[in-house]
Write a structure and sequence with these properties.
alpha/beta; two-stranded antiparallel sheet; about 40% helix
Length: about 375
């Protein structure tokens, strides 16, 4: 009787897994590199990622993440610092877990395209919960209502600004090891910085959640509905509140005609401080320096992501398989930055994976 019930249970689970798209993650890495050992120690990668059954549809998953889950997270930051950059521009750092020991590691989070301390609360909470480490959420120019005394902003951030933010963090906590995590557009800044710096970085390891890879072409594949809605958010966050800032921007009229993320990204280069799209792209696009990364970087993409389409990864699979310090994981489901699992209580499979990866890397240095 017991054997029959076990067989029936396994059959029912197999049917459910098929219906919700539960599969083991796919791993892309160099078997001769350091990720072979890392992957052996991450149990999540040896079993199926089972998305929350009622979120197996990519759009339901994304809307739940953006419109419901974010608003359920209650978290108060310990402190928000405003930093004056060398050119007079303003960035910020939102801190959580400042009561951690002075030598406790710090996770530096690089946020999404319109990210704020409020929109990033779930990731901040999860990483602190799983590691007990300090969290430093680096705010880019124009985000979260920061003053913009210098007419300059960048959808993917500035590596110069990030260097100054990291130096600030190191000055504040000189005995803290740093780990980096980028989410969506924040991965563009993370990867660009890591490629520019190679081994010359205080970051010990990094995790990129849902990157778009080549920023010049990635926006072409964003689902039309989300592209339109996100473009409107760009106007609401970075153009309308700073009308006086952009008065002398000669290309503003073309930016205002943008209907999609691709249109906006092609037109706003002057707002980012460049005189042409070509120079902006050469200085910002992470794909040009991707192969120069030297520290361990773990990347996660969902194959059903409607914003950072999985086809963006296709041209770089063979490159990743040759790199010793970079590995990519893909899951059949997960949508964009969601990766929820559980039924009554949903939680992010991705946040747990990132935290476990950082803890493994920290143990290597002890």
């Amino acid at each position: 009787m017991g054997s029959w019930l076990n067989t029936l249970s396994r059959g029912a689970m197999a049917v459910l897994d098929l219906a919700i798209g539960a599969e083991k993650p796919k791993l892309y890495f160099n078997p001769q590199g350091e990720f072979k050992t890392i992957f052996e120690q991450l149990p999540q990668l040896h079993r199926k990622y089972r998305p929350t059954p009622w979120l197996s549809n990519t759009h339901a998953h994304l809307l739940y993440f953006d419109l419901i889950k974010k608003r359920q997270i209650h978290l108060s930051y310990d402190q928000v610092d405003q930093l004056k950059m060398q050119d007079g521009g303003i960035t910020g750092i939102a801190w959580y877990g400042l009561n951690a020991a002075p030598d406790a590691p710090t996770i530096v989070i690089l946020h999404t395209i319109t990210g704020t301390p409020e929109s990033m609360r779930e990731l901040v909470r999860d990483l602190h919960l799983y590691t007990s480490w300090r969290i430093a959420l680096c705010l880019r120019r124009g985000h979260a209502g920061l003053p913009m005394p210098v007419p300059k902003m960048n959808l993917f951030g500035s590596t110069d600004d990030l260097r100054e933010q990291l130096a600030w963090i190191q000055e504040k906590f000189p005995n803290s090891d740093l780990y980096g995590m980028g989410s969506s557009a924040g991965t563009g800044l993370l990867v660009r910085y890591l490629g520019e710096q190679a081994k010359d970085t205080p970051l010990k390891a990094a995790f990129a959640l849902c990157p778009g890879y080549n920023t010049e072409s990635g926006f072409k594949r964003v689902h039309p509905f989300y592209s339109m809605m996100m473009t409107k958010k760009l106007f609401q966050n970075f153009v309308e509140p700073y009308k006086d800032t952009w008065m002398k921007t000669t290309t503003l009229s073309k930016v205002l005609q943008s209907k999609t993320l691709f249109d906006f990204e092609q037109a706003y280069f002057e707002m980012a401080g460049f005189d042409a799209y070509s120079s902006y792209n050469q200085a910002t696009n992470p794909i040009y320096v991707f192969e120069q990364i030297e520290i361990p970087l773990l990347v996660l993409n969902a194959e059903d992501d409607p914003i950072c389409h999985i086809r963006n990864f296709e041209p770089y699979k063979s490159i990743v398989r040759q790199m010793r310090s970079v590995a990519v994981i893909t899951t059949k489901k997960g949508s964009h930055c969601g990766f929820y699992e559980g039924i009554k209580e949903t939680h992010s499979w991705a946040s747990r994976l990132a935290a476990d990866f950082f803890l493994l890397e920290a143990n290597k240095t002890q």
